Amino acid sequence: MSKPTLLYAQSGGVTAVINATASGVIQAARKHKMKVLAARNGILGVLREELFDTSRMTPDQVRALAHTPGGAFGTCRVKLKSVEQDRARYERLIEVMRAHDVRWFLYNGGNDSADTALKLSQLAQTMDYPLTCIGVPKTVDNDLVLTDCCPGFGSAAKYTAVSLAEAALDVAAMAETSTKVFVYETMGRHAGWLAAAAGLAGKSADDAPHLILFPEIPFDEAAFLERVKATVARVGYCVVAVSEGVRRPDGKFLAGSEGSIDAFGHSQLGGVGPLVAGLVKDQLGLKVHWAVPDYLQRSARHLASKTDLAHALAVGKAAVDYARKGMNGTMPIIQRVSDRPYRWKIAPAALADIANHEKTMPADFIRADGYGITARCRRYLAPLISGQAPVPYGPDGLPRHAVPKLPLATKQLPGMTP
Amino acid sequence: MSKPTLLYAQSGGVTAVINATASGVIQAARKHKMKVLAARNGILGVLREELFDTSRMTPDQVRALAHTPGGAFGTCRVKLKSVEQDRARYERLIEVMRAHDVRWFLYNGGNDSADTALKLSQLAQTMDYPLTCIGVPKTVDNDLVLTDCCPGFGSAAKYTAVSLAEAALDVAAMAETSTKVFVYETMGRHAGWLAAAAGLAGKSADDAPHLILFPEIPFDEAAFLERVKATVARVGYCVVAVSEGVRRPDGKFLAGSEGSIDAFGHSQLGGVGPLVAGLVKDQLGLKVHWAVPDYLQRSARHLASKTDLAHALAVGKAAVDYARKGMNGTMPIIQRVSDRPYRWKIAPAALADIANHEKTMPADFIRADGYGITARCRRYLAPLISGQAPVPYGPDGLPRHAVPKLPLATKQLPGMTP
Hints:
The structure is a homodimer. By secondary structure, the first copy, chain A, is of the alpha/beta class. The first copy, chain A, has two domains: 5-139 and 304-356, Rossmann fold; 153-299, Rossmann fold. The first copy, chain A, has helices spanning 18-31, 43-47, 59-65, 87-99, 111-126, 153-174, 193-198, 221-235, 272-284, 296-299, 306-324, 351-354, 375-381; strands spanning 5-10, 35-39, 51-53, 102-109, 132-137, 181-186, 211-213, 238-243, 260-261, 267-268, 288-291, 330-338, 343-350. In chain A, strands 3-2-1-4-5 form a five-stranded mixed sheet, with helices on both faces. Chain A is elongated. Chains A and B meet through α6, β9, β10, α9 and β11 of A and α6, β9, β10, α9 and β11 of B.
């Protein structure tokens, strides 16, 4: 029989700092002599009994995780249904954990993962298997309830604000004879958190971004174009930040998730950035450029926020602590103690209160005209992008990313198609 | 009469380090007690007699230019024609310079700017006006001849390699149940330098980027898709770097500079990135994501290369030196002394040998199969992204950009419509 084991798994979209959480988990578990297995590709790896043995990692390798973006052990987009509908898979999870003497399961993800961890904790009780399930927060979407913010968001927010500030200087320098309107697309299908973060780039009314398009505000094409025109007339150029989740007044996404089909039947995978840019060009005849950073914004570990990194490490360490204390069905969340100076602490919350809920932006975070952020929003966001978290670079000029190559723990069970 | 003056102007597309060149110019000129005027929006500012007086800048402000992206004094995309065709404008330039006792004119740009500086130097001679014209190199396109590389390129190259390496970890972590193919679009309409720089992210055959599409290699859709398919089968995912300048076998751009028109008559401003992504989705049915960093790649001062920054400062300082020495019609260029360790020096070249020429990628920089870079290319590129050039950040978590607000020198002449 192997020794009592902690199983860690990553779930859903990765962030610049999810591996820092993994690093925090492994460091804390080692202090308490706990063995740590990490599932390959999230819950799929548990179903398949593909579990990396992290005890092979040197302390340096564990620390290096904290400056490596992506998901070091692999992650997946798989949502289990209810225990009734998906009983075979839930029971398989418990079987695999039993076979490896897993006493603590840490699931690092968003709403769906909190839900899975919760159901698993309940099923384990009915199956009389002693398992403590802890959810560990993570998402660039910043949409988990109860926690003040989500690890991963602060770094994506910093990437957004810095990139927009830099590009705006480019546009400003060239606007007279070149691009007049620049459109920057942010992630955030359901809530405008990252679009709001773009707003941190500007301090006064005529600073970029001049206009932000939020998913929370129905898109009014005529009013938007009027504002673009007025901004160009007043400032000389106009920088627009647009959330991928912007919707038409009828509630439909401005740019469908699958894009559109052109006259030749080809997919146009243009996101909302190029779409809004096209409107500006067609309706106003202004020269326009657009950028869609896509995955870059959630993997830019080189530009991570120090605050965010600290959060990511702290929730990992606290999760191990909660696990040891048998705080089944909880999640370590971030509580804000004060804005200025920014102070925060980690506290437990019930997974039942988090699973399947979604935090949207408070209405008073969006300016009355709908195109910018309020002082209150700025006060909330500012500490989250504060401080730098530099990565080590090699002589080749590239960050020293460290993705461990680990052996899988010996399988104890017959295989199963997950 | 004002004292003998150096006039500096920025031209064409900006880079992450063009302001570092400006900083080098002002620092060097101050050492020699030269007065420095900087034209507002490039040559347009000279025509309009809109000349910033940089003597108001504190030494700290001058140094801060070196970590501020964009073009601090403004730049423009204006190409003068031949002296015969554009005589009034050339003569106006000389008039304005005479009015401000400009003895030295430094034009910081690419091929076109070298041409303008050259013509101006020739016209000044025929007009018996004592003017020394110096071209100062700059372009993320890396397409100036004679110089080993162009200031601005190394930082854009570093941005490209780092961003691609980070995003590739994201894709790798999620490929099993999410995105299988990721397409990253680089700038470079005429030459594949930045697409080649993406190649620095990978060290071995199965590292990202798995495929690079160069403007130099006609796009073979069937062969490309076959390779994408094979890469996904072998590696589990496929990362593609595509240059905006990729062409069809008939020589036409894969994505027109103006985009296409959709079934509703709207402009589709999709670049080549979404277009290639669309092919992958339609023809192979694979889940695909794409990123178009656009201006971000040439304004990401936060990720500048130390080598590139050193080049940018050095050409600025050398330009002042050449100006003082009356080396009319020259440009300080970068000469590589050795690859490993990387050593370089600044040397003069004749503008006549640079103007209107374009350096393309050597054929032996592209791998025989057309989808990657050779060891020789890597040896050339590697030193250019080497070393970091950190920027100072404020307590707000943003870089402390410093765009000086300067007064214009008092106009001496009646106005003119440029």
